[in-house]
Amino acid sequence: MTQKHTTPDGLVIVDKPSGFTSHDVVAKMRGIARTRRVGHAGTLDPMATGVLVLGVERATKLLGHLALTEKEYLGTVRLGQNTLTDDAEGEIISSADASGITREAVDAGVAKLTGDIMQVPSKVSAIKINGVRSYKRAREGEEFEIPARPVTVSSFAVYDVRAAVAEDGTPVLDLVVSVVCSSGTYIRALARDLGADLGVGGHLTALRRTRVGPYKLDSARTLDQLQQDLKVMPVAEAAAAAFPRWDVEERRARLLINGVRLEMPEEYAGSGAVAVFGPGGRLLALVEEQRGKAKSLAVFA
Length: 301
Description:
Pseudouridine synthase, isomerase, 3 domains, 301 residues, single chain, Archaeosine Trna-guanine Transglycosylase, Chain: A, domain 4
């Protein structure tokens, strides 16, 4: 256990509360950990809850590489209403009776949004268009287009379909869904596009992120719990969980620390970031293979 008066060094897996931005959580963690050196591995919308990976001190070096890993979500998609933000935070801009939508039609629509797809991010998002955040342009009433980009939806499953009546009296369908997807995928854009395909509109009413890479909800803690007892995952343990591991002996460890580009075993070719460990399980660096040699991404030793 880390004592409160010391500055921890590692990853913190937070169960983000609804209503907090990712930056709000970072600010809160700076107070809890008593350091400015805190960052996050990919944002989570204010409405959403669940896994938000934070890095404290040296672990901030891992974050850019962790942000690229696969994510998993549980959510609720409402068919029958479009909103300005593609989720329940925005005002309703259109409604349509969704009571006639069959389960077969839902499954067919979901299938079209599974696999390698081109997705247009939500307009009220942090995507930058010519250097300006998309949500800023949207709030100022500007007309603009966001280019579609490739994302991978490994799994998109519907667990339950519930008929309901919205506050404005519209018959709607609420779908309980799970999604496993690549970094950069907008779940609310999936809800919007599913509703558009079915001709009734759709938006996201609830979202909980249950996994970021190897880090799952069962290891996440609320901000209140962390305020009482700040436990961090040591940098070496976090790197070993998230990246392929390459162990080197003392001689090569010294060379690597001194900036020498070591020859990498062929098994790591194309692996992306690889965690290099020296004797005694000491984390030395994150590297990637480049022309057969180890190019440093971050050094920890």
